[in-house]
Each structure stands twice: as structure tokens, then as C-alpha cells.
Specification:
Layout lengths: L2 H20 L13 E5 L15 E4 L8 E5 L4 E8 L2 E6 L2 E6 L3 E4 L1
Length: 108
């Protein structure tokens, strides 16, 4: 596959995600996970937002390019219902979003 085709495919995928968000949809992912309980672990115990330390950002999509909508902390229990690469779609306290999976200990 040529670079031109890869770029075209990425542009189409990005346009689809933007369209889905504009109409209240969710991001379609290529990888589904069994829904499991999880706990946030391994973060710094010192909250330093200026250094992005001490919290796990919850985002509108599975990448740091998406807007941060919340923060979760060590010990927070979450429900992991989907995965996209190293990112996990989490639900907690009636809220949902994407968080980097490295900091979530999952038990199925």
C-alpha cells in the first residue's frame, strides 16, 4: 500500500470520527474487549496538573489528540467495556470516556 493510500485512509477515518462525534455517536474501534471491572493504579500520589501528574486523563476519544473531559485517580473503580489499541473505554460514577490502559488494572 502506498503512502498516498495510507494517508487517504487516515483522512477518511478521521472524517468518520468527527462526523460521529458531531451527531453524538461514539468512535468505532477495531478491537473489542470483554467488559471487565478495573481499578486505576500506579499514578503519582502527588496531584500536579501543570505536569500532567497524579491523575489519569479521561478523553473523548482514544488518543491524546482528543479533548480531556475528566480526571480519575488511584483507587478509582471503573468498568472497561471496549479497547482501541492501548486505550480503554471506561465508565465510572455515571460518566464515560477513554483512558490510557497502562494505568488500569483489569479483572475479567
Amino acid at each position: 500500500m502506498s503512502n498516498r493510500h495510507r494517508i487517504a485512509g487516515l483522512l477518511v477515518a478521521k472524517a468518520l470520527m468527527i462526523t460521529l462525534f458531531a451527531f453524538g455517536g461514539t468512535v468505532a474501534t477495531t478491537q473489542t474487549a470483554e467488559a471487565c471491572n478495573g481499578v486505576v493504579r500506579g499514578l503519582s500520589n502527588v496531584y500536579r496538573p501543570s505536569r500532567n501528574s497524579g491523575f489519569l486523563a479521561v478523553r473523548t476519544g482514544p488518543s491524546t489528540r482528543f479533548r480531556k473531559i475528566d480526571e480519575i485517580f488511584n483507587g478509582q473503580r471503573v468498568w472497561v467495556s471496549n479497547r482501541s489499541g492501548r486505550w480503554a473505554f471506561v465508565t465510572y460514577n455515571g460518566r464515560s470516556g477513554w483512558a490510557f490502559g497502562r494505568w488500569i488494572s483489569v479483572r475479567c
